[in-house]
Amino acid sequence: MPLDTFKASDALTLGVELELQLVNTYDHDLSSSADDLLELLRRRPFPGVVTPEMTQGMIEVATGVHTAHGPLLAQLREIRDTLAHAGDRLNLELAGGGTHPFQRWFEQRIFAKPRFQQLSGLYGYLAQQFTVFGQHVHVGCSSPDEALFLLHALNRYVPHFIALSASSPFSQGVDTLFDSARLNSVFAFPLSGRAPFVLSWDEFAGGYFTKMERTGVVQSMKDFYWDIRPKPEYGTIELRVCDTPLTVERAAALAGYLQALCRHLLERNEPPPEEDDYLVYTYNRFQACRFGLDGTLVHPKTRQQIGIREDILATLRQLGPHADALDSHAALDEVERACVRDGNHASYLRRCFADSGSVQGVVQAAVQALRRPC
Q: Engineering a disulfide at 24: which of 31, 254, 260, 303 sits with its beta carbon 3.0 to 4.6 angstroms away?
């Protein structure tokens, strides 16, 4: 069927989705409790939207549409507190983090929803291995061509969001040496990676998407696992590279940083995006996954090598006027603290492992961080 018409929305509006871990209180392994938690949450109003995810050890929560960082953070805190209260009633804990440090993928149960069952049949064991946890940020766009412009203009900043959000250093009981091991699971899917370089919606919808649909490979935009993808039914672009942070404060800060960055890009004072920008895209993405804030990227225009941490700090200095306009200084301050003082949550979890000596201790630290910011 033809691609949905792009429903233009108010520019720079924000929405956040977080995939969260459900954790047993007795051994800190994942708990196949999504059905029980969702049933309990249905009994009273929920301050957002909560839905199942691929496997029973996870859920996804989503905020409403916001124009500023402060109200977005307030809703995320209300969602967190509601979930924590429900978890206490079920003797269940919740946590952020991009991976569970020691869950066994082959023990995960696919949620009984037709789309998840269909994906499990198509992707086999990859569906169970997709028990990883990400943050998605939606940014409203006033036109479909604006959406495609932002999607590609953001390509050089994708390493910033990977490095800042990275919270998945452990997988299958070991330190992977990656700050974001989660994205390695996403890379395994055939329709992951980057979107094709198209800047016209007519060309994208009537050309690229129509051709892909005729191959039988895709039926809707949901079939693409791109790092950034347009969402025509919402009138947004959706950034999908972030691990779920350990705290809602970091999650809201990442959204505020993205909003300010998009406002900056829409002024069109930077060289426009082009296909050759993607020559260094995969390398930059790897650096951010592997080394986090200590990684190095190659600037797609100048070909200069820059430290990711230094590039973020330089970008923050450009965003001051946009923070004034958007009332997002608190978000950018949180990003700066991560770069200068606190580090990302992967480094925090490694410190917790060094202190506790166990991956169970890492999970307990993640559970506590969601309730009380680290």
A: 31
